[in-house]
Specification:
272 residues; alpha+beta; Fructose-1,6-Bisphosphatase, Chain A, domain 1; D-Maltodextrin-Binding Protein, domain 2; 2 domains; eight-stranded mixed β-sheet; five-stranded mixed β-sheet
């Protein structure tokens, strides 16, 4: 049994408390107060309540740590020793439509490095967690990325930009380029869970662009601690800064990166 540190226990307690409320609200999804936050991005009363719960629990346990919150933004309560990066409901559109695939994502960043991560799926009661240098875990079981080497048998996940948003046409080119080279491609609508699934070896690769830090912070550490690779599409170590993410089991990282490069070139040529 993996021994969780004090900081992971704090994160888990906050996520589980918020998760219980999310599950209750999910059962009454049609009654939620919903407002439009942006193109195809929604904020719900459940989202806001979950964020408030997580913030209160984390602050109570660690009052010197600041926050980067999806809804509230930067909250500089701390002394510079670190910040929590929180997405209280990753997969909001799924939640609103009654699709049981969403999660809570919490990461701790210290001195510019991600040091602890937790992704909690309240529907399945699964907790993915990692600490820098300690490995990655699903509940009490250590997890590793897949060992699959053959692209033809690999299962990938992707994030699809909404029609009319930047990157939509480029994505269509990437899908067309990659689809025939792999076993299948999935789109489940929660970037944090996509990264957790890479860490657990359920997917072999995943790509998406225009993501926010709270979408990917926890998942990035999980993938790295599980032995995977996470970069921009062209292999640069700037996924966290740019929000462009290619995460794989490490073995097929090069081939997918090359295919994405080929697709990007085709998209640019098509625009001429």
């Amino acid at each position: 049994m993996a021994l969780k540190s004090a900081v992971i226990n704090v994160m888990e307690m906050a996520a589980q408390k918020a998760g219980r409320r999310l599950n209750r609200d999910f059962g009454e999804v049609e009654h939620l107060q919903v407002s439009r936050k942006g193109p195809a991005t929604f904020v719900t009363s459940a989202d806001l309540k979950a964020e408030k719960t997580i913030k209160e629990e984390l602050f109570k346990a660690r009052p010197n740590i600041a926050f980067l919150l999806e809804e509230e933004g930067e909250v500089n309560l701390g002394d510079g020793s670190g910040r929590w990066i929180v997405d209280p409901l990753n997969g909001t559109t799924n939640f609103l439509h009654g699709v049981p695939h969403f999660c809570i994502s919490i990461a701790l960043e210290q001195n510019g490095e991600l040091t602890a991560a937790l992704i909690y799926n309240p529907i399945t009661d699964e907790t993915y967690w990692a600490e820098k240098g300690r490995g990655a875990f699903l509940n009490d079981m250590k997890i590793r990325v897949s060992a699959r080497r053959d692209m033809k048998t690999s299962l990938l996940a992707a994030g699809i930009p909404y029609h009319g948003t930047p990157g939509h046409k480029a994505f269509i080119h990437s899908l067309d380029t990659i689809m025939g080279e792999v076993s299948g491609i999935r789109r489940f609508g929660s970037p944090a869970l996509d990264l957790a699934y890479i860490a657990a070896g359920k997917y072999d690769g995943y790509w998406e662009s225009d993501l926010n830090k709270w979408d990917i912070a926890a998942g990035m550490l999980l993938v790295r601690e599980a032995g995977g690779s996470i970069t921009t599409f062209d292999g640069k170590n700037k996924a966290y800064e740019t929000g462009e993410v290619l995460a794989t089991n490490n073995v097929i990282h090069g081939p997918i990166s090359r295919l994405l490069g080929k697709a990007r070139k085709a998209a640019k040529n098509a625009e001429k």
